[in-house]
Amino acid sequence: MPIRIPEQLPAQDVLLGENIFTMDSDRAAHQDIRPLEVGILNLMPNKIETEVQILRLLSNTPLQINVDLIRIDNQAPKNTPQSHMDAFYHDFSQVAEKKYDGLIVTGAPLAHLQYTKVKYWDTMVTILEWAQRHVQSTLYLCWAAHAAMYHFHGVQRKLREDKLSGVYEHQVLDPNNELLRGFDPVFYAPHSRYGHIRSDVYESVPGLRVVAASAEAGAYVIASEDKRRVFVTGHPEYDALTLHDEYQRDTAAGQQPAVPVNYYPNDDPSLPPLVRWRSHGSLLVTNWLNYYVYQTTPYDLEQLASKAQPTR
């Protein structure tokens, strides 16, 4: 089944070129089913690139999904035209009364800022608390995963001296967890971050379980027992060249970044990257939609209020 996205969203042409089925509002109105309502809080500067990456992951499911793109403030984003934001994004205040089956919160390039120093941190806290009452299950990616751990559980990340960048080997730790259904025992996933929280720290929080991890990159997928929160410390959504573009950007800025691990053949940046994470990235999001969202969400989304859980 298709994903429903705003008409004329640039991602639509990209997805159609990949034979991914999308539909506009008129056609969706004639579908005699209750589609899933999914919000995407996009914190990345390049909104369009991130939209395509996440919508691609959402498309690989038999479920019909209505997607709302949400922005956290009205400031002009870096690398994205203001006209695009005005045409396709909702201010949080416009959706604050709405209930969602699922919410995805992206990463953000805020590695070295304390959370409370982030200009939109107060709004971020409001949205995190709002999701407790208005969203069945929330998927937090990279920076957002660490930010949510800090807010909900008081867990402070540590900052690495060097950036964790590359494609790392991971192990399935809980093969019975639905998020990992169909996963190979060993799989690969991209990481691009400075922040780090040890696996035993996640495990020390009541109700949380590390279900996939890497010997080099640490905890990768952490899930709450009630399926309301999923923390993913890496980037299953990344395109083939995303790490390459980051490496080239940092090199051009004179930062002398290390070559991303296990990414280029023979660690040679002149060679095309070796892509080996797409299938598991797609499966992770599909499993989240199926088992953590669709299988648990009430038919009447107004019933979500009774599912609100206390934080720390």
From TrEMBL:
> Hey, which family's this protein in?
Belongs to the MetA family.
InterPro entries linked: Class_I_gatase-like, HST_MetA, MetA_family
Q: Name one Pfam family in it.
A: HTS
GO MF terms, alphabetically ordered: homoserine O-succinyltransferase activity
What are the UniProt keywords, alphabetically?
Acyltransferase, Amino-acid biosynthesis, Cytoplasm, Methionine biosynthesis, Transferase
Q: Where in the chain is the site Important for substrate specificity? A: S192
Q: Which reaction does it catalyse?
A: L-homoserine + succinyl-CoA = O-succinyl-L-homoserine + CoA
Q: Say which domain of life the source belongs to.
A: Bacteria
Please classify the protein's predominant subcellular localization into one broad category: cytoplasm
Q: Where is the active site?
A: C142, H235, E237
Asked if Magnesium is a keyword of the record, the answer is no
- What is this protein's name? Homoserine O-succinyltransferase
Query: Any idea what job this protein has?
Result: Transfers a succinyl group from succinyl-CoA to L-homoserine, forming succinyl-L-homoserine.
The record's top EC class is transferase
Its pathway, per UniProt, is: Amino-acid biosynthesis; L-methionine biosynthesis via de novo pathway; O-succinyl-L-homoserine from L-homoserine: step 1/1
Q: Where in the cell is it found?
A: Cytoplasm
Which residues does substrate bind? K163, S192, R249
PANTHER family the record matches: HOMOSERINE O-SUCCINYLTRANSFERASE
Q: Which SUPFAM superfamilies match?
A: Class I glutamine amidotransferase-like
Q: What is its EC number?
A: 2.3.1.46
State the organism of origin: Alteromonas salexigens
Task: State which gene encodes it.
Answer: metA
Residues under site feature: Important for acyl-CoA specificity: A111
